C-alpha cells in the first residue's frame, strides 16, 4: 500500500515534511501544496523555496500546479523538471470559491468541454515529467463522476488521486467510496483520499476495495502523525515523540517566520489532535507559548 501525505496549503511545508519524515516516517510521497500559476509565470518566493531540492532533500515529493492554462502548465512542468523532479500533479480539487469562480481547481469540473480542450492541449506534446491529477468527484453532485471519470481515463495520468467528495461538500459529510469503486474499474492507478483518520478507516476501505493500491491522507496525519507508520504495522506515537514533533515544528517555523506566526501555525495544526475535545481546544486557544500548547494537547 502506497501512502501519500496530502498537500495542505499553509501547513505541509518543507519544515513539516522533513520533521515528519525524520520522526515518524511511513509516508512514500509528500505532496506539495499548489503553486498558483499566473500569466507572468513568476512564482512566489515561498513557492520557489518550498519546491527547491534543498528544502526536500531525502524526501520523495510531488509538486502541484493550479491552473487552467496549458501554456502556463507547460512552462511550469519545464521548471519542475529543471529542479530535478520526475513527476508533478495538477489540481482539479480545490473547492475555494476564490479559485473555482475563476474556473480553476475543482472549478474546471463545472465545464467538461473546456476541461477536455485543456487536457488535449496539455498532452499534445511530450511532457518533461510524468503528470498525475488530484480531483473531486463532481462540482454540484456525485452524479457527475462517471462522466468526469471517463474524461480523465482518456489521458495518461500516472495516477488519479480522488478526494471522494464534490466541491459543494467541501471537507465534511460522508465520502463516496462507491465513486472510488467505479474508478478502480476504469483507471489503472486511482488513489483514495478523504477522511482516513485511523488504521481501521483504511482497513474498512481495503475490505470494501481490496484492489486499492494507494491512499492519500491529510488531516488524519496532522491529528496522528504516526498514522502512516501504524498502517504499516508500526508503533503508535509515544509521548516523547509527540513532544519532539510539536517542539521541532515550532522551532522550525519560529526560525523561519518569527514567534507570532510560528505560534499561530502550531495552534492551527494542534487543533487536529485536539478535535472533539472542547477542554483541550480551550486550553490550546489560551496557551501563550509552545510549552502551553504542548501541555494543552498532551496533558489535558
Ligand atoms: C488547510 C487545507 C489546505 C489544503 N491544501 C491543498 C492543496 O494545496 N492542494 C490540494 O490538492 N489539496 C489541498 N487540500 C485538500 C487535501 O489535500 C485533502 O484532499 C483533503 O483534506 C481531504 O483529505 P483528508 O480527509 O485526508 O484531509 C487542503 C485541505 C486543507 C484542509
Can you describe this structure?
This protein is of the alpha/beta class and 300 residues long. The protein folds into two domains: 2-231, TIM Barrel (Alpha-Beta Barrel); 239-298, no CATH class. Helix content is 44%, strand content 14%. It is built from 14 helices and eight strands. The protein is globular. The mean pLDDT is 97. Flavin mononucleotide binds at residues 6-11, 33-34, 64, 91, 93-94, 134, 163, 171, 193-196, 217-220.
Task: Provide a compact summary of the structure.
The protein is α/β, with parallel strands linked by helices and 300 residues long. The chain is 44% helix and 14% strand. Flavin mononucleotide is lined by residues 6-11, 33-34, 64, 91, 93-94, 134, 163, 171, 193-196, 217-220.
- With helices defined by DSSP (H or I, 4 residues minimum), what is the helix count? 14
Q: What is the H/E order?
A: EHEHEHEHHEHEHEHEHHHHHH
Q: What is the end-to-end distance?
A: 35 Å
The share of residues in extended strands comes to 5-15%
Mean pLDDT: 97
The CATH homologous superfamily name of the largest domain equals Aldolase class I
Shape from CA axes? globular
Kindly report the CATH topology of the largest domain: TIM Barrel
Task: Report the C-alpha radius of gyration, rounded.
Answer: 19 Å
What portion of residues is helical? 40-55%
- Top-tier CATH class of the largest domain: Alpha Beta
> Given the helix and strand composition, which structural class is it?
alpha/beta
Amino acid at each position: 500500500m502506497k501512502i501519500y501525505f496530502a498537500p495542505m496549503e499553509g501547513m505541509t511545508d518543507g519544515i513539516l515534511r522533513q520533521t515528519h519524515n525524520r520522526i515518524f516516517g511511513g509516508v512514500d510521497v509528500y505532496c506539495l501544496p499548489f503553486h498558483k500559476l499566473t500569466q507572468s509565470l513568476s512564482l512566489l518566493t515561498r513557492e520557489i523555496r518550498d519546491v527547491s531540492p534543498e528544502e526536500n532533500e531525502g524526501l520523495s515529493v510531488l509538486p502541484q500546479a493550479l491552473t487552467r492554462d496549458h501554456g502556463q502548465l507547460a512552462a511550469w512542468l519545464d521548471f519542475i523538471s529543471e529542479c530535478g523532479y520526475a513527476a508533478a500533479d495538477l489540481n482539479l480539487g480545490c473547492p475555494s470559491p476564490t479559485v473555482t469562480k475563476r474556473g480553476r481547481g475543482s472549478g474546471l469540473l463545472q465545464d467538461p468541454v473546456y476541461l477536455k480542450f485543456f487536457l488535449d492541449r496539455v498532452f499534445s506534446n511530450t511532457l518533461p515529467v510524468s503528470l498525475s491529477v488530484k480531483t473531486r468527484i463532481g462540482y454540484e453532485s456525485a452524479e457527475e463522476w462517471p462522466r468526469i471519470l471517463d474524461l480523465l481515463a482518456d489521458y495518461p495520468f500516472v495516477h488519479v488521486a480522488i478526494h471522494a467528495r464534490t466541491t459543494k461538500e467541501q471537507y465534511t459529510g460522508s465520502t463516496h467510496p462507491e465513486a472510488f469503486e467505479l474508478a478502480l474499474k476504469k483507471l489503472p492507478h486511482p488513489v483514495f483520499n478523504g477522511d482516513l483518520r485511523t488504521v481501521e478507516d483504511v482497513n474498512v476501505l481495503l475490505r470494501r476495495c481490496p484492489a486499492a493500491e494507494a491512499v492519500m491522507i491529510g488531516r488524519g496525519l496532522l491529528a496522528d502523525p504516526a498514522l502512516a507508520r501504524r498502517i504499516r504495522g508500526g508503533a503508535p506515537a509515544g509521548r516523547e515523540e509527540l513532544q519532539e514533533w510539536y517542539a521541532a515544528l515550532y522551532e522550525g517555523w519560529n526560525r523561519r517566520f518569527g514567534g507570532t506566526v510560528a505560534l499561530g501555525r502550531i495552534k492551527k495544526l494542534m487543533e487536529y489532535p485536539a478535535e472533539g475535545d472542547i477542554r483541550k481546544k480551550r486550553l490550546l486557544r489560551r496557551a501563550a507559548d509552545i510549552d502551553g500548547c504542548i501541555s494543552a494537547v498532551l496533558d489535558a
